[in-house]
Design a protein that fits this description.
The protein is an alpha/beta fold and 472 residues long. The protein has helices at 5-10, 27-36, 51-56, 58-75, 91-115, 171-174, 191-202, 222-234, 288-291, 326-340, 370-375, 391-396, 428-436, 441-446, 456-464, and strands at 16-21, 41-45, 119-122, 125-129, 132-135, 140-149, 153-155, 168-169, 183-187, 206-210, 238-240, 243-250, 255-261, 264-270, 272-275, 279-281, 295-296, 299-300, 313-315, 355-357, 362-367, 380-386, 402-408, 414-421. It folds into 3 domains: 5-155 and 280-350, FAD/NAD(P)-binding domain; 168-277, FAD/NAD(P)-binding domain (3-Layer(bba) Sandwich); 361-464, 2-Layer Sandwich (Enolase-like, domain 1), CATH 3.30.390.30. Strands 1, 2, 3, 4, 5, 6 and 19 form a 7-stranded mixed β-sheet that branches.
Length: 472
């Protein structure tokens, strides 16, 4: 009688069925899913559980952004008949709160790994063969039928912007400072740069946001970017697009930056510089080249099942360079493990991965922008609904924004959604399900949404595609 899949793994000559390197949102989720499927699983981690996302990225930044939001709400309290005198803020206390949240969630991951019988192995490691890694600190060699690399990514070293962790920072360093700077220049207006600009500005920092491209959030829809720019400028953030940093000169109190805006040279003084551009995979010093794993532009090359060119060796998350988002890493991890277990997981559609920026207003999107759809040859219809016409947005006191839906003209299938406004990141789940089910704009418009909510603006935007919006 042939053994079952799990029995076959157990009877193999390897110590583990799956060995995972890295415990970020990709690695720890993959480890738990692996254990759920009955595979003997080990997880190697050299630092804190949870990776950069939990410890120095997604979670602490969202905690600090919430603190910034509360501070700004208090500043607006007079409009609500609530009067606050002698308002004070303590950025250090906000940072302490963020670290407590990180600690709680890190402990939670440890509990989940233990609950699922995942063996946790601390240390640095190097892949020594297709089925073996070595723990560098102890020289222990561990064998596994499958190896899954989830080592994440890091900021690129930029020659004229060397990180010194005092004046020139990356986002990890910036999340560790306990006093908001008086002046800050942020280089790069992607998600990280925009979020830090909002957070520091709320705590009184004079922020300048510098972007080489012609809009902030260069990967997002142009109309959404323009609306966010207006909102951030209104809050007091200076934005310089189509601007290159030519030189950074450190001073006793900070730095002086030489900026080139379409040939116009200017200088700006600052206390600190946040470098929020350029990422590359953590591919060095873990044995990849020695065992022959293909690397492309400092990221590991993978196929549709997350397998590298070396059979039995998989890679997931930021180290693959596919879409550098925590939820994408988790989805890749589950897919890879289910493939290892002999299942047939659905292909990951990277173009429909949700994207969220937690400034205020928030930005949320997935799928193609209007221009991308046109460039790919699609005939599209577009519906827009301004949140200035939303009762819920007015009640919140934040009605700057819009919902924009892009659909395919003939079929009506949703190709993309792009939103800017209060709490719009919470609308991505609904739109993701609609896309997975290949729903049309008509079907979304027919779905009764609660009133008053921001979500009902999705209905209005879908109706607007055919000039049938009710409240516009």
């Amino acid at each position: 009688m042939n053994p079952t899949l799990q029995e076959a793994f157990t009877l193999s000559q390897f110590e583990f069925d799956v060995l995972i390197i890295g415990s970020g949102p990709g690695g720890y989720v993959a480890a738990i899913r692996s254990a759920q499927l009955g595979l003997k699983t080990a997880l190697i981690e050299k630092n804190e559980l949870g990776g950069v996302c939990l410890n120095w990225g997604c979670i602490p930044s969202k905690s600090l952004l919430r603190s910034a939001e509360i501070l700004n709400l208090i500043k607006e309290s007079n409009e609500h008949g609530i009067y606050v005198s002698d308002l004070k803020s303590d950025f250090g206390q906000a940072v302490n709160r963020s670290r407590k949240i990180v600690k709680k969630l890190t402990d939670g991951i440890g509990f989940l790994l233990k609950k699922n019988n995942v063996e946790l192995i601390p240390g640095n490691c190097r892949i020594t063969s297709q089925n073996q890694v070595e723990i560098l600190e102890t020289k222990q060699k561990i064998s596994s039928k499958n190896i899954l690399i989830a080592t994440g990514a890091k900021f690129k070293d930029i020659p004229n912007l060397p990180i010194d962790e005092k004046i020139i920072l990356n986002s990890k360093n910036a999340l560790g400072i306990e006093k908001s700077p008086n002046k800050a220049v942020i280089i790069g207006a992607g998600a990280t740069g925009v979020e830090f600009s909002y957070m520091w500005n709320a705590f009184g920092t004079n922020v300048t946001l510098v972007e080489l491209q012609n809009q902030i959030l260069p990967l997002e829809d142009a109309e959404i970017s323009k609306q966010l720019s207006r909102s951030l400028i209104k809050q007091g953030i200076q934005i310089k697009t189509q601007t290159k940093v030519e030189k950074v000169t450190k001073t006793n109190s900070g730095a002086i930056l030489e900026l080139n805006s379409n040939g116009k040279i200017s200088e700006i003084e600052t206390d600190i510089v946040l470098v929020a551009v350029g990422m590359e995979g953590n591919v060095k010093n873990i044995g990849l080249e020695e065992v022959g794993i293909s690397i492309n532009n400092n990221f590991i090359a993978i196929d549709e099942n997350m397998m590298t060119n070396l059979k039995g060796v998989y890679a997931i998350g930021d180290v693959t360079g596919k879409t550098l988002l925590a939820h994408v890493a988790s989805a890749q991890g589950i897919h890879a493990i289910e493939h290892i277990a002999g299942q047939s997981p659905e292909p990951i559609k990277y173009e429909y991965m949700p994207r969220a920026i937690y400034s205020n207003p928030q930005v949320a999107s997935f799928g193609m922008t209007e221009q991308q759809a046109i460039d790919q040859g699609s005939t599209v219809k577009v519906g827009k609904f301004p949140l200035s016409a939303s009762g819920k947005a007015m009640a919140l006191g934040h009605n700057e924004g819009m919902i924009k839906i892009v659909s395919e003209s003939e079929s009506g299938i949703i190709l993309g959604a792009h939103m800017v406004g209060p709490e719009v990141t919470e609308l991505l789940g609904e739109l993701g399900i609609a896309t997975m089910l290949e729903s049309t704009e008509e079907e979304l418009a027919m779905t009764v949404h609660p009133h008053p909510t921001i979500s009902e603006s999705i209905v209005e935007a879908c109706l607007a595609i055919n000039n049938e919006a009710i409240h516009m």
